[in-house]
Model the fold of this input.
Amino acid sequence: MMSLDSFQARRAALIYNPVARALARHPHSLQRTIAVLAKQGIQTVTLATTGPGSAAIQARKQIEAGCDLIIAAGGDGTINEAANGMLNSAVPLAILPGGTANVLAHEMELTGPLDRAAKRISQWIPRRVSIGRLYAAGEIPRYFLCMAGAGLDAAIVSRLNLDLKATAGKLAYYFAGFSYVFHPLREFEVLVDGRRFQASFALISRVRNYGGDLEIARGASLLSDDFEVVLFRGTLSLRYLRYLLGVALGRAHRMNGCTVVHGRSVVCREPEGSRIYVQVDGELAGRLPITAEIAPHALTLLFPPEYLAREQSFAAVRACA
Done:
């Protein structure tokens, strides 16, 4: 098996979403990125995704062909698909920001054009990480790096105008969200490691930030072996305007109606007669009931050294809390 300490990429496959917002706006960024990687001794082939699930197939084929690094450039959905094709492989996954929200890229503080983010990729450090595995009603198991959401946020994703998303970016999510302002919500049952709760929005997260702009799961970490689960109660969607303000101020976890717990297994069940949606890394993924569980050490990710140093300090503080 490849040694993580001595890893040096020589042959990479860069899988990108050609309609991702950042890539569509900067059509020459891929060529510049390939040149940046070549200067680091990494010969790179580029592969455009062709539809849902194609990134997973492409990643798997490139690993079988001998690539020692997969790079995913696009939004969190593209990254999620590529990761699903790399499970239990020793080949690392590196990510470059190219989509709308770029949650995972923001988590690692990778911002700006692709070529700028790729300039130090040879100095990034591989680490084996645990990821989430989701079982949704009527769907095949799906793995996720960032988060799964049940309830309000998934309902917003279900209403998302994809054409508006391509042109307006994150504003499309706000437009879809405001369409729910006077919409009644249904609460559902949530079990976290057997502990029972009620919520109208359950966030099952491996990352702190949400949508690239807000921190909701403030105690989550890609280097931990559990989820941070943030549960919001309320049947009136207007209540979420207050929650949104609390999140923006970093105080949501102290608000009445918000519960934060950690766990390795989460079960969500919808009440009879309801239809409650689920999203995974920003993509619609079915409806309740669901089970989300930790898949231990299932993927190798490349991390900037600054991120690892920050997370190790964060873990030390969390251990003393």
